[in-house]
Amino acid sequence: MKLSESWLREWVNPGADIHEIAERLVMGGLELDIEPALAERPSGVVVGRIVHLEPHPNAERLRVCEVEVGQGGLRRIVCGAPNARAGLLVPCALPGAQLPGGLSIGVSTLRGVESAGMLCSAAELGLSGGSDGLLELDADARPGQPIEAHLKLDDRILNLELTPNRGDCLSVHGLAREIAALYGIQAARPRIRPAVVVGEYRFTVELEDPLDCPNYAGRVIVGVKPKVRTPDWMRERLRRSGIRSIHPVVDITAYVMLELGQPLHAFDATRLAGVVRVRRAREGEGMRLLNGEFVHLRHRELLVTDERGPAALAGVMGGADSAVSEASTRIFLESACFAPTAVAGTARRHKLFSDAAYRFERGVDPELQRQALERATELVIQICGGEAGPITHVGRTLPEPIKVPLRLARVRQLLGHEISAREVEQLLSRLGVVLSHADTGTWHARVPSCRYDLRIEADLIEEVARLYGYDRIPAKSNPAQIAPSRPPEGQRSLDAARDRLIARGYQEVINLAFADPAPQALLDGGAMAVALDNPLAENAAVMRSTLWGGLIQSWQYNRSRQSARIRLFECGVCFHRDSAGGAIVETSRVAGLISGSALPEQWGSRPPRAADFYDLKGDVEALLGPGDWRFEAAGHPALHPGQSARIYRGEQPVGWLGALHPQRVTQLDLPSTPLLFELDWTVVRAQPVPRVQALSEFPSSRRDLALKVPEAVTAQALERTLRRAAGPSLQELVVFDVYRGSNLSEGFKSVAMGLIFQDYSRTLTLEEVDACMLRITAELERELGAVVR
């Protein structure tokens, strides 16, 4: 928000330089910068009156103007502006004048006619980016007066970046109130004269839900002059606040919004019919807005309607069908308080960012509507003429008072500094907070209606600190007894997972949670992406549903910088829509990528080998640690059909690992094939709690077993079946050989395993071990078709 310094000083003037005021505001929690009213001010430009003009003898589009500039006599100036006419007051750059952009004005000859100066447009003075003709000045402008004096260009602008909780400062009145509180002085109060009511011009107003619109005031003004012009002082104040002048009535509503903080809207009363009603949108409704855009109202948006249908998107933007135009002579002024929740969703859903919505979503003072309506009426009658009808006011005249308990002991505890009760009362009274004693050391604070951000005790204590001055609170150490947190033993920490991957040569990367829709669709296995309403860029239009996209981008970036052996991992959150209800599901994941040689470069004689599926599987197993994990060959759309596996914990899916699909490598234009894994951290983080068990004092017994099994049978399947058949006496199992040769049938392999048996209470007999081996071989043959060689 931008506000003029001169305008602000009309409301409060602490007698300090603007930079000192800005510093005090910054220390009070409001961020702002100081800017000049014009980046480059013109010099040598005065107010001129066109007394007479005639066509240029040698140029059809030029005219020769006789201009009074207050220095005796008339100056002849050639001008081509379409709006030049006799009697018009305009800026006139005299010979020797300097205009923004380095343009110097002198006496010149244009098509055979001498021109002693130049008549200026707003753009040539640096007041706007473009203009269609000369800048027209008010009738009270005095010829010869410097233009910077007439337009008060010797001004500075306060450019504020307010936090969302400080909507009360989004006006001259609100900012003046804040400065007055920080300096401990009084700010001017709005002096508004109620309009003299003439006639009974009014609309009936109905509110369907007081929670959406607790307060609505409106007034009809008739006899408005349609051809009047917004005065220079108002146009300049609007310009310095970043608002373009459109129409006198529209400009007045914008001016009152900047002055008092209450957004208003003006309807052409002749285009409204029947009852004005504030209600939610109905099925199939839509409307064309002032910006020319047609919006479909499918989410029960809050509307201002008449009997024909929607007339405005409440608190956001008016409708084109009821807009004020240059032909409007009868207007209906609206001054309402719309709930922040009713406006914020509408503005974001339709990507409409208006000054009104900016204020309503932060909260507008519910006591301000009638006062703002009277101020707007005063300005309309003053500038545009007309007669005012009575105010139609619906809803609560006064809002429910907000009372918050405040304890002096809590103030001192949170601030770490002794502040007296009298000083607390004085500081809060500057904000309009009324304190009443409940008992010793405790107050009931009544919060002013404009402060939506003061709802709990800590909010009031923060205000005490702001007004007291953070720089006056000494920095000191306050002893505190803090018990260290004890993480549950059944959950591993994410930091431990990071440390384990780093120890195996990985490096962590952090990528944005926004993704490019096209590459992500090739990697996420068909997940329903969550599209962003207002993406930063086309290649960041959806929320990521997999971490692989960011890892592949980081890998490409590093590989293009001659990093041949790369190990990357990322811990982050992914998003997708549930296929059943469409709800957004958020999951925490850990993912990794490896590429290049299996081992770092070394001097030894071992030849280099490219990393393969089993290198990645080993890293994943090290990350998972002990537990009921299993890897099953399975197909994933983004992974190589012969080099991919799904990871399970018991029967619960955990994640995927494998080489990127060759088709995806081509589609993504990758230089080689990376190996990837991704795990659901919410499942992986659970770990078995270690249990102490004494070492057995009895000897163990080893048996070796060579099995002929089909190629499709994995070692993992053999181990699971074998352990189930062996029972608790089997302590260890080692696969020490896998053989494929000519003496085996086609489609079979030989797997040799070492089985170590041991009991904790006694020495196992030979007969018991033999019986266990018989059970094992019988179960393996029955379940997996494995026979002993």
How far is it from the N-terminal to the C-terminal residue, by CA? 85 Å
Q: Helix tally?
A: 20
Radius of gyration, whole Å: 39 Å
The largest sheet, given as strand count, sense and whether it forms a barrel, is:
7 strands, mixed
Q: Which of globular, elongated, flat, extended, rod-shaped describes the shape?
A: elongated
Instruction: Tell how many strands the DSSP assignment holds.
Output: 40
Average pLDDT across residues? 91
Instruction: Identify low-pLDDT runs.
Output: none
Helical content class: 10-25%
Structural class: alpha+beta
In short:
The protein has 789 residues and is an alpha+beta fold. Helix content is 25%, strand content 29%.
